Amino acid sequence: MLLPTVSALPDAGTFPDILFKDFSQFIQEIFGSDITLSQVLIVLFTLTENTDLLSLHARQQNPKYSGEIHSTYSAWMKCLACGLQERLGTGQNQLFVHQDIAVSDTVVEICKNLDALAKVLCLYPYDSSGKFKGKLKAVSYESIQAVRIICPNAVVCQTAKCKPRSLTLGMKLRDIPQVTLIKGCTAYANVQVLTGQCSKCKTLYFADHEHVTEPGDKYTRVCLSHAKYLKVGQGLWVD
Q: In order along the chain (239 residues), what is the average pLDDT of each group of 10 residues?
């Protein structure tokens, strides 16, 4: 089970990189004024996670051969709109500005807004003249990955005589080690590993254990059963 494996990943495109002010203005114009950040992110990631469907939808908007019919709101996009409705529940009302839209028209209205947002995000494989630029690639999230830091799970000193004294950073900035963190099936490079210290009893707090100082400059190593991350090598941690 520990043998190395190889997997083929699809050719990925970059994450949409439009100006935030343009994105924010567009959201305010087409969605309800009370839409929340989480709802906006659900809509955004619904589009970036379904580039194959967006390509199918765009193709039906640009008929090329005899017998093909132009479809402004294709069945592909309607399915995506229905899935979004189910995901948001009552929050779906924030997907359109006018709240008095008939129930029968909500899917079409959501389709219209999703189609418009996809084009603003450049998730549309046709240019302004209707020329096909190529099937949309899967969107890569590498450029927007969060900064991850491994630090103690404790917030205050756990010793009886110091509790609840706050912990300070127990190292200088230049001495902070950087390691590789494997979380789930993904490896993250250059992750900082921070150590906390109680300024009174000098107990050191690590992400997976504690060093309790004793008389004579001795210490007891206490492993943590509830540790979030575990060191498994010289420069390797895992969740």
A: 54 89 93 91 96 95 90 93 92 78 78 94 91 93 93 91 90 94 94 94 92 77 90 94
Nearest one of 26, 15, 197 to 117, comparing CA atoms:
26
* Tokens at 86, concatenated: 């189910």
Q: 18 with 120: CB under 8 angstroms?
A: yes
229: Cβ contacts below 8 Å, ≥ 6 apart: 150, 181, 207, 208, 237, 238, 239
**Dihedral pair phi/psi, residue 211, rounded to 5°:** -110, 110
Greatest alpha-carbon pair distance for the chain in Å reads 90
Are 125 and 135 in contact, with CB atoms under 8 Å apart?
Answer: yes
Kindly list the distances between the CA atom of residue 53 and the CA atoms of 39, 45, 123, 124, 220, in Å, as whole numbers in the listed order. 21, 13, 11, 11, 58
Separation of alpha carbons 94 and 90, rounded Å: 9
Domain boundaries, the chain: 12-142, 146-238
Contacts of 186 (CB under 8 A, 6+ apart): none
Model pLDDT, residue 75:
94
Beta pairing partners, 187: 182
pTM more than 0.85: no
Residue 4 has a pLDDT of 57
